[in-house]
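Observation: inputs received (chain + L-homoserine).
Thought: call the complex predictor directly.
Action: predict_structure
Action Input:
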Amino acid sequence: MRTRVKISAPATVANVGCGYDTIGFALDAASEEIIVERRNDHQLVIKSILGAELSQEVNQNVATIAAQSLLDHLELNEGFDFHINKLFTPGSGLGSSASSAAAAVFGVNQLLKQPLEVAELLPFALEGEAFASKSVHADNVAPALLGGFIVMRSYDPLDYFSLPVASELKVLVVKPQVEIKTAEAKGLIPKEITVEIARNQWGNLASLVHAFHTKDWKRLNDSIEDFIAEPVRKKLIPGYDKVKEIAFSNGSIGCNISGSGPSIFMLFLNDEDRNVAENQIHDHYESEGIPCEFFSSGISAAGCKIIE
Ligand code: HSE
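Observation:
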């Protein structure tokens, strides 16, 4: 019987412009690796955390909160050790806490010999993410767990579907070096919006979904604009408008805030455009004295997976 498993969970881009709390996709790059090991007693213990300063208290860490929620549901009193390795720092806008929650429930489910299907793990992973961000949203957690490009139709009841994975798209992510906590970025979102804004937003969202089905990249570019989160959150991201300008002048077919920021994602149709944009954005941030990091990726069909 297997007693130890190592899981990786992907980084994710949530919101995808006009899909606030509704759409997200998985990236090729892993955000989290977690080793889950059976214990002989009934405790959950976080043995180590690499890559971030996070609480090892089991009721203060998304991984163990999510795992406990799964165990409670299954009415099991099993013990597990967790070794957490964060490959992206929390507060990047790349779904760090979501990947942790997803990897933890996936790993525990594996060691329990899969009492639940992977899709059935979503509500328990959501418990962990809800603790981290003080809000229930699955647009990071669902693609971190299941992979691909996921649209949340409803949270109560939980209902979602997958869009075709546009594997030909090249993603560029730039992360200017500031930290934005999702819980704080959520506080900026207007509590009420006008019918005119809602109309613009749902028109764009419907159009964006259609664009991914038809691979109509002109339509994607026209529809990705966000009228709700982007206008209030972009103020927290240095150089945001300039990055967009550079992206679009180099053939980007979509650019917006990744999750709650500060990372910005850009979609391109070829490596050359992506590389030119990266160089220009790098030069811009350097001239402003703002440190930044880049990474290039594709959209990944894979969510959590066993790597050892
Ligand atoms: N949809 C979430 C938000 C993603 O924008 O707040 C961040 O976790």
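Thought: report the result.
Final Answer: The first helix runs from residue 62 to 74. The chain has two domains: 4-163+300-306, 170-297.
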